[in-house]
Design a protein that fits this description.
The complex is a heterodimer of chains A (291) and B (511). In chain A, the strands form four sheets. Chain A has a five-stranded parallel β-sheet with strand order 9-8-7-10-11, sandwiched between helices. Chain A has one domain (13-261, 272-281): 3-Layer(aba) Sandwich (Aldehyde Dehydrogenase, Chain A, domain 1). In chain A, α3 (86-95) packs across α4 and α8 (214-223) packs parallel to α9 (237-247). Chain A has eleven helices and twelve strands. Chain A has helices spanning 46-65, 68-84, 86-95, 101-121, 125-129, 162-172, 187-198, 214-223, 237-247, 262-265, 273-277; strands at residues 13-15, 18-20, 27-31, 37-42, 131-132, 139-147, 150-154, 177-182, 207-211, 229-233, 253-257, 280-288. Chain B is globular, with a radius of gyration of 23 Å. Chain B folds into two domains: 57-290 and 492-510, Aldehyde Dehydrogenase, Chain A, domain 1 (3-Layer(aba) Sandwich), CATH 3.40.605.10; 292-474, 3-Layer(aba) Sandwich (Aldehyde Dehydrogenase, Chain A, domain 2). Classes of the chains: A alpha/beta (291), B alpha/beta (511). Chains A and B meet through β6, α9, α11 and β12 of A and α8, β19, β20 and β21 of B.
Chain lengths: 291, 511
Amino acid sequence: MSERIPVAKTYKLYVGGAFIRSESGRTFTEKDAAGDLVGNICQASRKDLREALKKARAAQPGWAERTPFNRSQILFRVAEVLETRRGIFEELLVKVCGWSAVEAKADLDAAVDRTFWYAGWCDKFSQVLGGINPVGAPYFNFTLPDPQGVVCILSSRTSPILGLLSGILPAIVPGNTCVVVADNRAASITLELGEVLASSDVPGGVVNLLTGERAELLEHVAGHMDINAIAVFGGEAKDLASIQEGAAENIKRVREFDDPDPSAWRDRAQQSPYWIEKFCEWKTAWHPVGV
Amino acid sequence: MDGIDVKEIQPTSPGASEQSGAKGRTPVPELLFGDLWDYAPAPQNTSHVKIAPRYEHFIGGEFVAGTGYFSTLNPATEERLSEVPAADDEMVDRAVRAAREAFDKRWSKLPGSERGKVLYRIGRALQERSRELACLETMDNGKPIKESRDVDVPLAAAHFLYYAGWADKLDYALPGATVSPLGVCGQVIPWNFPLLMAAWKIAPALAAGNTVVLKPAETTPLTAALLTEIFQEAGVPPGVINIIFGAGASGAALVRHPDLNKVAFTGSTEVGRAIQRTLAGSKKRLTLELGGKGANIIFDDAPLDQAIEGVVEGIYFNQGHVCCAGSRLFVQENVLETVLRKLTHRLASLRVGDPLDKNTDVGAINSSEQLEKIRSYVDIGCAEGAQMHQLACELPDKGFFFRPTFFTNVVPAHRIAREEIFGPVLAIQTFRTPDEAVQKANNSPYGLSAGIWTDKGSKLFAMAKALHAGVIWGNTFNKFDPASPFGGFKESGFGREGGLHGLLPYMEVRG
């Protein structure tokens, strides 16, 4: 009996809930640690970025208007689905990134647990971080978080799944939508996450995943006028400078994060309600009290 | 204003009643008291305010002579009040070094309980010298004495007292987190609330354990100069608060100084943008409190008389020199006529003139440059086809004054409906449905403030949720409190001042 030939997967970008090829038709080759072909991966262009941002903008009000409880249910579902599909991520971490099986398992343990952890924050963080302000006059005054809108995430380059999720989750918990530009050793892992999200009731457009070159897209991200915030993981000084410079045009919020080595990403210090806070606007409302 | 059709609003004597528009009722006759029933002058005595002919930079607890002295004027009389130096790079460096030394050697080592007492002393001293500060603020800025006396100075003192209480409770501010100060903060503040903005900047920074270098605006340096005396009296350790004077160039020199850990700026979006660019690639933290074009929305079920008071408070308070001013009024179409009648009547009783008169409602425009800017916007509004309405009141012979003004027949594309004028000029538009109101209100690059007037609670909450603004006033406007966070969405800046959230930009948060 001859050996069976497996069906090869075409790795496509995940935009607006659909798996699409880059409009540019460009691909790059991903090889595993042994040098064998994993796939031809779509390389996102400036136009792909613009289209993804449109999808993110269109999806944002709907995502924010869902009840916090509903958002948390959806993110819990992501944790469920990730748990059952963890095998493919562990396999790719070993095969493509050359990690040991033990490391890969630890990473997926942390990724599932972190997703579960953030899921529960959706309907809690506003109570912990917002509040009623005791003003010195007869007014009822409270401060609550609003989402910033559309966040562009230049994701971790060291930690393909846990680092990626650690950027996405705090951004979408308060009702933002996001476009991720992933540029790391294992683009296949980024796009596998798209399949997890697509089958977890996360509405299309809430998370959009682009694989490509950060350096190529950076200036377009910085200068785009319909992005509210940019999250940068592990940028070089000159990249951070050019992001801030472009961001000033419409006063984008730029959030800079470290990009530690993979094992440090598993540390609990890499998850925080104060990361959610970085993707919030605080809205304070006043009303007179009296009869 | 030749050739421009202006609907003039004749000033009325105090106590005149509004002509009722309701059908089937006998109109209440306007009571005519003529000249017999006008306000007598009620000037605030300023003999206890001693203004030195010259003030110096305050660096390391000492007064340091500088260069490039320039005058500061009383905008209501155009008389020269005093002069201050303009800090150059070298002076900025000296101030930052003093702040760094104070941070390393003293302030960061002082327990929060002791820092709190220093802040408390400052707050108390502000209260003790409140009338002196209010007079000086009014003389240097042009705002009515009743505002500096009843709003600016008490709020400034309250800010110090509020944050005094935070200094020893930082461990409880953010659950699960450990916090530490950032270091040296460079702070640049505007001329519209000179003392209050200094308090907003200094109090949370010091409470969190930072030291500061603050630059007041070039047209309003005097209350900051008086503050330096208060800091000395209050025993603020040398170098913890440094004040340097100067215009934009001095501010630019400050924010680009390499040894700052944080920059906080309040002012125009244009300058904020430049600062964000200047800081690009540095590790300095930044908060920006920038411009606005606040929407004030009146529904047909609103308590209209209160709403009119809110409109007046929203745009004519502080001559409209307020970043969160309600400069765009949206009126539900079916009550437009009533609202315009009531607004016209209310405007007629505004008293414009001597800021030191206790009965003055609208004082002097802060500078001739600002007056020119306001005038040019009014010309633009007329040229674009909006209908101008203006109070036809007498103005003092000298000084920079502008008559309270509003525009009707405004469309969203008009520049007076989009750009921040920073003066007593209101642009009135209409809407039919709540959705339309939200859409029009949010159609702005700014997102600082919004007002909603309705008697229906559910509608108010729905609007408050939908509006993209950092401060929402429901059935009120332009209210401030040290416990209440303030700051904008979108191009109105980022970061909050006031309340617990006002501490965040001044702390390193771990956890």
